[in-house]
Amino acid sequence: MRGASKIASFALVWIAACGGEKEKPPVPLPHHFDEQPLRRLGPQQQVIDAKSQYEIAKAEADKAEADYEDTGTQLQVARNDLKQTQIAIDTAITQKQAAQKTGDMNAVNQAQIQERTAEKLKEAAAARVRFLDVYRSYTRRFWWYAQENMYWREAQLEQVKANVAKERGIQPAKTEFGWFPSQVDERGKRTAHARDKVAKDKEAAAAAHATWRKLQDQADKDNGRATTAWDPMAPQAQPPMPSPQVETKTMSNAQTPPPNGEQPPPAPPQQQQ
């Protein structure tokens, strides 16, 4: 998929930007079970089920990557919008100066109101840029989480294939059955750890969103109309987040349980224009 090598290179940049923080990006599985010996067995339902779960997780990871990239575009648009608000302030100041020359105090007062409104709109636009910057970090973290979840599901699939082979007395060359339970455990722990980080970044994004909305709502009130700016955290139905606690009924005791039995944080909202 698109993201594997991109994540690895992006991680180096992010680590450097964070002052050397040791952040481990998602990496592919080291062990895969060769399906060739299983083909003579025909379709195996447990393999089909596990493969379906993996394909769903892969699609979710692709969506998370696309959302992260889309948010980068929206952040740049917001920065451009912020630049435009200064033009509105300059225009209001010019109109105020012209009104002052006429001595028409009604015109002066109106121009002053327009200037204050323009300043509030600029303050709100700046807060929106800060929010989208934090939100982009959240979508980046979510993308990493979705990658970890995808590899965890893949590890389950590999173990299911190994279990089927072992039950049927099939021993592929250069393959150890002991690889696969530990691989599932390790990937489950990585996924749970990544999920916890997503929750923290979501809280930061929500706080930045609240700050922006407070300023924006006041500016909209003074401006006489509501903003149409893109708001990815506006109240709306959100898709479920890929979750490591969903049971795969064909798994063995190597299944990784959910940490503390907690539900995962919700996914980033659907990206809308």
Give your account of this protein's structure.
- With 273 residues, this protein is mainly alpha-helical.
- It has a domain of 157 residues.
- It has 4 helices and no strands.
- α2 runs antiparallel to α3 and α3 packs antiparallel against α4.
- The longest helix has 63 residues.
- The radius of gyration is 26 Å and the shape is rod-shaped.
- The two termini are 25 Å apart.
- About 12% of the residues have low confidence.
Structural class: mainly alpha
Low-confidence stretches: 11-20, 245-266
Strand content: under 5%
Shape: rod-shaped
Radius of gyration: 26 Å
Largest sheet: none
- Topology order in helix (H) and strand (E) letters: HHHH
Proportion of helical residues: 55-70%
Number of helices: 4
State the end-to-end distance.
25 Å
Give the total of beta strands.
0
Mean pLDDT rating: 84
Task: Briefly say what this structure is.
With 273 residues, this protein is mainly α. The chain is 66% helix and 0% strand. It has a domain of 157 residues.
Task: Produce the secondary structure layout.
Blueprint: H1 3-17, H2 45-102, H3 105-167, H4 179-223
Helix pairs in contact: 2-3, 3-4
Quick tags:
66% helix, 4 helices, 273 residues
